[in-house]
Every structure is written in C-alpha cells, then in structure tokens.
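I hope you will forgive my troubling you with a question about protein structure. Here, with my thanks, is the record as I have it:
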Amino acid sequence: MKPFDPDQRNLVRSPLDDENLLSGQFWGELRVFLAVAKAKSFNRAAEVLNTSQPTVSRQVRRLQDLMGSQLFVPTKNGVKLTAKGQALAQALTKLDHSLFALTNDLRAESKEAEGVVRVSVTDGLNTFFIAPAIQSFSAEHPKVQLHLKSPANVVSLRENQTDLMIGFSPVDAADISYRRLGHLHFIPVVAKSYIQQHGIPTRTNLTDHLFLQSDYYTARTGLWDAWIRAVEQGRIAHVCDNPMAYGMLVKAGLGIGLLGNYTILERDAVPLDLDVRISIPLYALALTERLNSRPVRLVFAWLCEMFGPANPWFGPTLRLNPPPSRFDAGIKMLFNL
C-alpha cells in the first residue's frame, strides 16, 4: 500500500503547476541583463535591443532587486560583471545552449539528417579547409546547416557555446568527447617583396629584419620558444591577432610571419630556415550529449577526416611539398592556383 495517491494534486505537484514560475517580466529582464553583460555597456546594450538606456538601467536595477545582489560595477569604459553577475551570465549562456540543443534534437529525430550544427574553429583553418569543402558536404547532407564561429576561447569548448570545436589540447571531462587528429605545422614565411627590399633572412642576420608577431605565439609554454627567440633578435614591425589579417601582413611584405605550412603554395611565399618549426596536435572536441544527434555525428566525422592524418598537410611530420590531394581545394581557390 502506497502512502500517497499520485493523483492527489495538492501533494504531488510539478514545478509546471506553479503559476508564478518565471512569470511576469522576469524573462525580459534576463534578456536585458545578458545584453549588457555581452556589450559591457548600458548604452551599447540599448542600441542592440532597440530601446533606451534608461529602460535598460531600470530593468537591470529591478533584476538586481529581485536577486538581492549587485550584478554590475561601473568602469571607465562601461560596466563589468560582479561575481554574482558572472555566475548568472554563465547560467544563462548554458540555458541558451541547452535550449538550442533541445530544439535541434527535435528536428534531428526525423529520418533524414536535419538541423544546425555549431562549430568553433580558427579563422585560418576555417578559410583554407572547412568553408571550401562545405559544398560537397551539403550535396550529401542538404538539410544539415553549419554555423561556423571564430572561437572566443581557444582552449574551452564550453565557453564558445558550440557543439563541436577544432582545438589544440584534449579535455578531461565527462561531458566532453574528443578525438586526436593530425598536426598543425608552423614555419617562418616571408614574401618575395620583403626579400627584394630587405634581403633574405637567415639564422645569422635576424637583427637586421622585421617580424610580425601575434599574441597567439607569445605563450610561455615552451612550444613557441624557438619563434620567440627569433623574434627577440629582430624588431617587431606589427602585432596582429586575426589569422587572416596576419597572413595578409606577411603577403604585403611587412615582415617575417609564422604561418601554417600549407600557405607556402602561395606563389609569393618563401619558407625560411630559421631553426623554427612548431607542430601542434589537433583535436576534434564535442559535447558528448550532442553526439546523440545524427547531424552532429556527421559533422564530427567529416571534420575528423579533414584534419586527420589523411590530409597530407596535417601529417605527423612537417612536409613542405606533400602530394596534391582533394584537401588542397581551398588553398588553390584562395591563391588562384
């Protein structure tokens, strides 16, 4: 005999039975809060939301009153999150990701693979390899839509709010799956126009040359030490953290750059022997739960093939003249080869 009747509604209730659950304008205030958190400014958030700054300020104050905590503190350039505000912002971004996954999974239950798959990948790998290959992928899976995003965080899949990520290190977490792929190889490269103006850089004359630096290449992890030592011998002409713009600075002849080995197919590119060769392992990372979705599994497998050892550019050892392959399509397209 059971102590309670499952049909006795006043004792056995669901949260959905609470008529005050997320009622009123609470959702709207959370949306305004998240807009301010992203913009780091009440004025900029008001522009994004197409409303006034006083309205934004009023809704944030109301949310703070409801929570009993200050969510923002003023800075010279706008506002920043408090510890409580940061916790709320992270909870909201997780909710947004969960809602996206839920709605996408509902579409994925149909026989044909259908849905949106969000992928975070660096601009260089995206431009040279993923974007040019989408046409053939879409021909096979026409109802799978890719949302390609530049990673806001190069080490954290969760922070990027995507289903998949091409990353540079494994993640030891129960909710994240990963597969080791190939290696991304970097070498010093200079344009022919630079050589015409400054001469050919060698290991013995770097004090006479200009370098193009990036914050990506300055981490004191030991991996970038050979490049850092070379740069310290010369002079930094410019610093650029956008991979494609960085490549254009090299192409424009503004200095010695550190680029992926595949860029040497560009007719104007000259690889340099400066005792700098850097190889980084590549990993395909996925939210484990999202791999239950057929579209996500298809994209995951597709990326693993693209950046795995089958692609000569990402083999275990650096190659400057690998045999032609179908993975060269984007490189040839960009360089008009």
Summary: The chain has three domains: 15-89, 93-182+281-314, 185-279. The longest strand covers residues 176-191.
